[in-house]
Amino acid sequence: MPIPILSVPQMREWERATWATGQTEAEVIRRVGKRLARRARRLTHPDDFILILAGKGHNGDDARAAKEFLDERKVKVLEVLLPESDLPTLQLKLAEKPALIIDGLFGVGLNRPLSKAWQQIIATVNAAQLPILAVDVPSGLNAETGNHFGTAITATVTLTVGAPKAGLLAKAAAPFVGRLEVATEVGLIPCPLTAELNWIQAEDFAAFPPPRPAAGHKGSFGHVAIVAGSHGFHGAAVLATRGAQRAQPGLTTLFTPESIYLPVAAQLQSAMVKVWQKEISLPANTTAALIGPGMADPEICEPGKNFARRLWNEAAFPVVADASALDWLEPQPAVPGTRVITPHPGEAARLLQTTTEAVQVDRVRAVRELSQRFGGAWVVLKGSQTLIGRGEGPIFVNSSGNPQLAQGGSGDLLGGFIAGLLAQPALAADVARTLTYAVWQHGAAADQLQARRTNWIIEDLANELGNAR
User: Fold this and answer.
1) Burial class, 27, CB count within 10 angstroms (exposed 0-12 / middle 13-18 / buried 19+)
2) What is the rounded average pLDDT for all residues in the chain?
């Protein structure tokens, strides 16, 4: 199950409930240290030098506990308790260029501005420009609001304990948090709390998608129809189709303008490719449709708009609207079935008649308002930590992906993958899980590529999509 994203008071409540069962803080600290060490090993190599910065609170205890589990590394624990007198020692250790710094200076209990001396400690660490693994929260950051107390550690990875804290997802916190990961199974009882926001993890999809029946055939797994592409944007049609194919529906049909039919069809083998005309009918056995990727040529905008609106308002099957099609939809009080929109922040701002900055400052509100504007449709608000939700109910926050996804064609691939999954009756029955899986898989596939090579492109992602575990 996704993990609820908690406030600091809620986290304290969870901890108190755990201590009431007889579990000890010492045991939880030991387990957190073990998880920290596991993550530190992935960020380093045998015999690398790891510098642990330990403050006087429980974050310092967690950081110290990691040393026991780092036998294959050269580890130095530096107690930083008196910033004025400890600064010279810190500078000497940083001059040795550790392969990784584990930041355990301050935790969620910090509630006041940092002194000039502490700010100098943090500035010195950041200035070294070394990889940093932050324990629970980057030191100096307010885990409730996402603002800092004068300055904060700029982490490469933040391994937060138990559950994400709300402030770590705030726009203001992004430059400090780096990649946010969650250390689960550290000895806390199952979380007794619920929240509006929920963190998606790989474990949520251990048995998803479910195994296909042995007697299944093409007709068992649906038929996805895609309307995409225009002159100068033929690649969007190809990538959307490949994304749909990676979801493995029974059949895939792409409708694309005659002007780009040949270069598009030449790149696709198992998908059926047909010429899109002003008046078309999708196959009678269509079970999901995607419209919009690459439909930017002014010559097709008017017929595209009419078709998109008719499809959105009348289709009995799931419809995914992406890219150009987002601007063609009309506000309405309700939709007739499963509907999905997939805006990036700029597109969301246009739809809401606001600014991209306003969307990014309150992404949850943007999801709610977009869904309400378009009749309760599902919203996939793309970007770092993509959100999936509707006007009511839980909103899911994606944990996978990396900045290299910011390449043209990434969204086309995701739109096709979503439609290809929703075309399959067994997956369309649970829209929330299918959408969260699609977004997680898209990011996780990018993470797998990034672990192997740094110069991958979206065509590589098209080959990897669906293969992350």
Assistant:
1) exposed
2) 96
Peptide bond into 209 cis (omega under 30): yes
Contacts of 274 (CB under 8 A, 6+ apart): 253, 254, 255, 256
DSSP 312-369: HHH-SS-EEE-GGGGGG---BS--SS-EEE---HHHHHHHHTS-HHHHHHTHHHHHHH
Reply yes or no on whether the pLDDT at 279 is more than 90.
no
Residue 469 neighbours by CB distance under 10 Å:
8
Q: What are the beta bridge partners of residue 87? A: none
If DSSP codes are grouped into helix, strand and coil, which group holds residue 271? coil
Q: Is the dihedral of CA 296, 302, 304, 305 positive or negative?
A: positive
Domains and CATH numbers, the chain: 3-191 (3.40.50.10260), 218-464 (3.40.1190.20)
pTM: 0.95
Taking phi over 0 as left and psi of -120 to 50 as alpha, with beta for the rest, 232 belongs to: left
Walk across the sheet containing 387-389 and list its strands: 3-4, 197-199, 395-397, 387-389, 378-381, 339-341, 319-321, 288-291, 223-227, 251-256, 272-275
Residues in Cβ contact with 206 at an 8 Å cutoff, skipping those fewer than 6 apart: none
d(CA 285, CA 151): 58
